[in-house]
UniProtKB/TrEMBL annotation:
UniProt protein name: Phosphatidylglycerol--prolipoprotein diacylglyceryl transferase
Annotated organism of origin: Herbaspirillum rhizosphaerae
Gene name tied to this protein: lgt
Family annotation (NCBIfam families): lgt
Transmembrane segments: 20-39, 60-79, 99-116, 123-141, 179-197, 204-221, 233-260
Entry EC number(s): 2.5.1.145
Amino acid sequence: MLIHPMPNPIAFSVGPLQVHWYGLMYLLAFAQFIALGRLRIKQPHIAAVGWKKEDLDDMLFYGVLGVVIGGRLGEVLFYNPSYYFANPADIIAVWKGGMSFHGGFLGVMIAMYIWGRKRGRHLMDIMDFIAPMVPLGYAAGRLGNFINAELPGRVADPSLPWAMIWPNVDNLPRHPSPIYQMLVDGILLFIILWFFSRKPRPRMAVAGMFSMLYGCARFFTEYFRTPDYNVSFGGITISAGQMLSVPMIVLGIVLLIIAYKKKSAAVSTA
C-alpha cells in the first residue's frame, strides 16, 4: 500500500519570500497556455480568422484575473462559505490552495467577454479558441492539490495497488483522487479536445464539446473523491462537484446542438 509522500508545500525560499508548489503549478498552467496557443495559431483554420501571437499575451492577462478571482470566489461561495465568512482574511490566502474550477470557469468567461468587447471578438469565438488549452492547465492545478495533500479520495479497497494512506487524514487506504482528476479531467480531455479542434468546427462546437466532456469527466471522477458536501435531489445524493458539473454538461449539449443546427441550416440554404 502506498503512503502519500506529504512533500513540503514550499518549493523554495528566496530570503523572506516563500514560493509554493501550488503557485508554481499555476505558473506552469499559464506557460502552457502560451505554448499551446502559439501552436493553435499555426493551424490554418485558426490563422484564417485572424488570431495572432499578440492576442495571447493580452488574453492571458485577462484570463489570469478571471481564473484567480473567479476560482477563489467559487471556492468561498460554492464549497466553504461558513469558514471563509468566519475567517475573511483567509479569502485572499490563495497560496494555501483552494480554488474552484467551476468558479474559475465563470471568471474566465467574464474576463474573455470583457476582452472580446475591447477587441471586437465574439465571446464564443474566443471560448472556441481557448478551450483546447484549458485541460492541461487544470491538470497542473490538480497536481498542485496532490502536492498540498488536498482533496483526499474516498476510502478504497486495500487490495487496490495504488490505494494510498493520507497521513494528514487518517490511516485508511484512499483513492488518490487528485491524480485521477489530473489524468481524466485534464490530460485525457486535452487529448480528445485537441484532436477535435484541429479541424474547422462551427461556432460554439469546440466550447460546447469542452463543457460537456469536462462536466461528464468531473461527474465521474467525483465518485472517487471525498465530497466537500452532498446534495440530494429526488432521493438521489450527489457531491457538490457533481452538482456543479451538471450545468456544464447541459450547457455543452445545448451549445453543440445549436452549433450543428446552424451549420445544417447554412448548408441547406447555400
